[in-house]
Amino acid sequence: MAERKENHYRALQIMMKFPEEFNFGFSKRKVIFCTIEPNLLDSGGRMASVPDIVFEARGKKGELEVHIVEYKGTTGNGEAYDFAQRQLAGASWWYGKFRQDVDRVQTHLRCGDDPQYREHFRTLGRKLKE
Question: Is 44 exposed, middle or buried (0-12, 13-18, 19+ CB in 10 A)?
Fold first, then answer.
């Protein structure tokens, strides 16, 4: 279990450091804030969502965009996929309700075994060590 958590966190670090490689729709230089696993609480102090990564970036016209990312190691686990979708929906709701300064919210789900990104995780993981 600890190794799985470590691999998950490492994948999050890779996506944070190299967002352009994962087709999130913004360039790294436009990012103004980024965090891993923020606790998003509702007005009663209850946990609304804990997305894997949240990027705040400036859009092409200067508008504030929030990109919420969930990462799953494999695409085959239906329960984990459903959980990720609920996390994305909860985080999207939270930003719409509690962050009036946000102009646009986008959600992204990335899987480590997706052929489009699998090689990125391997090669960029090596760069992360440097």
Answer: exposed
- Which range marks the domain in which residue 64 is found? 2-129
Over range 25-39, report the average pLDDT: 94
Q: For residue 48, give the amino acid letter.
A: A
- Pairing between β-strand 64-72 and β-strand 104-111 as defined by DSSP bridges: parallel
- Report the alpha-carbon distance of residue 112 to residue 81 in Å, rounded: 12
- Whole-prediction pTM: 0.91
Q: Rounded CA gap, 122 and 9, in Å? A: 14
Interacting residues of 6 by C-beta distance below 8 A, sequence separation 6+: none
pLDDT at 121: 87
Pull the structure tokens for residue 41. 């609480």
Q: How many domains does the chain have?
A: 1
Predicted confidence (pLDDT) per residue in 84-118, tens digit: 999 999 999 999 999 999 999 999 999 888 888 88
CATH number, domain containing residue 17: 3.40.1350
